[in-house]
Amino acid sequence: MGDRALTNKELEGIINNMSDCEYESDVDDSVGDPDFENFSSSESTDTNANVGAIDTPVDSEVNLSESSESSSDECSPNRDVSGSHEVRVIWNDCSDNETTDRTNRIYKIQPLADGLVTNFQAACIPKKDVCIDETMIPFRGRLSFRQYIPGKRHKYGVKIFKLCAEKGYTYNLKVYSGKEDNPTSQSVASRVVLELMEPLLDCGRLLCTDNFYASVSLAHELLDRKTHLIGTLRKNRKFNPKPITDAKLEKGDLIVRESNTHVIVGKWRDKRQVLFLTTEAVPEMTDVQTKRGVVKKPSTIAKYNSIKSFIDVSDQKASYSTTVRRGIKWYRKVAIEILTNTAVVNAHIAYQFFI
């Protein structure tokens, strides 16, 4: 049958038939932009809104038109992408709020981070071994404290210092907000370590760090608080013993030196020279199982590799279902990261512990 144009009478009949049918739109115009940008007028003018307060919509209908139109190839079929559309985060950006510390560069997310850390510490007490390292939240926008770390998977972004326990549980964290206005004699690394470790000091724990944090000075400070330190060491740190840093070693050689304050600095050569520090015990050569078979390593290096993996496990678990999306607001990316990645990983680890 050939195509033909409908008459006016036929069109009118079709329209009348459609109007008799019950029709419900899939899109609710009252629901805002799912990308956390648009808020209702009452929310945007509320001067008493708390930073990080989570507002869940009362209406069960949520506008998912943008996600439903996307191709099924863009996301895993086992993943629920609607979660980021159903949660809205209200930021306290009111200059007339007297309780807001405007000098704090991260004041928008500070209460949220503090609240999560309080719950993290209440849910779990770490064992003896803990690790401190940094993780990056990808962000390439304009930001005064954006960091560049070439060794990380995401080279540009917001840096978070994390204290992790066994199985990757994040016990404490701190968002780095740039150089402080009132600097002290302590280095940034020492201040971060002592701040994150404060709830765990004076308990005989063992802290593992990389060469960004470890130093002889930090080892003395931690020993005064009954805490041991183990980690790799940069050769240009203050108070490093010259005979150790200048020593030329052959493959497999190990040399150590212990101070009167029981701080041990050593150097070992495998494929390259590794300078390390420990206050726990004098290192001895031990057999370690690797992909290449059984090899000999100093006990300090073997323990360092084991404890240092705590934060790697945390980042690995968080990467499986990351919710980070493109955006120009750094605080939104940080909030979503610690809410849906760090907190969820901690909840999973706690669940595995209690079942």
From TrEMBL:
It comes from the Eukaryota. Residues 21-36 have a biased composition (Acidic residues). InterPro entries: PGBD. Residues 38-50 have a biased composition (Polar residues). Residues 17-81 are annotated as: Disordered. Residues 95-348 form the PiggyBac transposable element-derived protein domain. Pfam families: DDE_Tnp_1_7. Residues 60-75 have a biased composition (Low complexity). This is PiggyBac transposable element-derived protein domain-containing protein.
